[in-house]
Request: fold
Amino acid sequence: MGQKAALETGNLSPWLERLRGKTPVMAPVKRGRVSFAFSWIGDAREVRLDYVRTVLPPKQALLPSREDLLTLRREPSLAAPVIADSPFVLFGIHPCDLAAINQLDWSMLKRHNVEDPFYLARRNAATIVALDCMPDKYCFCSSVGSCHTKGGADLLLTPIEAGYLVETLTAKGAALLRGAKTRAPKPEELKAAQAWPEEKVRRSTLRLGADVSELPRLFDSQHDSEIWEKTAQRCYGCGTCTNACPTCFCFDVREQPDLSLGAATRWRQYDSCQFLEFAIVAGGHNFRGRRPDRVRHRWFRKFVYLNREHGQPFCVGCGRCSQQCTAGISLVDVINSVVAEAKEGVA
Reply:
């Protein structure tokens, strides 16, 4: 693996069209005037690789917002799992979203030494084509270590003047690329691709005020900070941030019988720690009934709890939550306020 080839711009759509004819392809497409979304494509000409971020992350291909788990029947008795294992291609995801998928792999397959069979089936069925990118004012991937991620992908595309330099990372990727018209890359194209990571970091202007390894300690010292109250005064508790997040994996499981009571469907759907009902337990007690507690939990979950458990923050710096927050709350601004307050207290 590690072989590189040049894919010229004019050969991209024919390749995608051949792929789409063999297997479903999810790729970024234009939505409205300025928005992009990952969607199952019906025409390769729909695909747009000039996006900075999509409204929703590509995790929907692996962990859908609503997913059937079981079909149940009373007579004859049946409880059959709904396993979606048909092959598909997830095309054009950025390194931050690839890093997020790697984190989902840990949470859904390794965290408690129990593999989620529904997620595992989709993950094994996926062939992932990553696409390197450049940041905008909302991106802070360089601060959380996700900007150069390529592990977990089968192919990596890096933009060059003629189109893309394609790096083969796995046997699945090599098989996928056989349907594309490629050529040997020129020395200047290899050089341009090699310079891409350094230029990407240079353009990353939004930064965290401390190394991510320091955040658990700094956050712990500010557990009772007024910052959480002030942030909660602005927050609507709408859950937009968690729905847009590529690493959030909380879900609720529900079951609905049909009118005859002879059959039922069990499904799961996204849930949010920002919803009032999220932390209600037996007896009706809500251990995060106050919005400031829910707001603080979100930041601690991302940068303290899972940071300590997993060895890295559960945030990949994609900027979706800040860009889409209905109250205009910036994740990075809150982090940097906490960091500044903690360092001032130490001083």
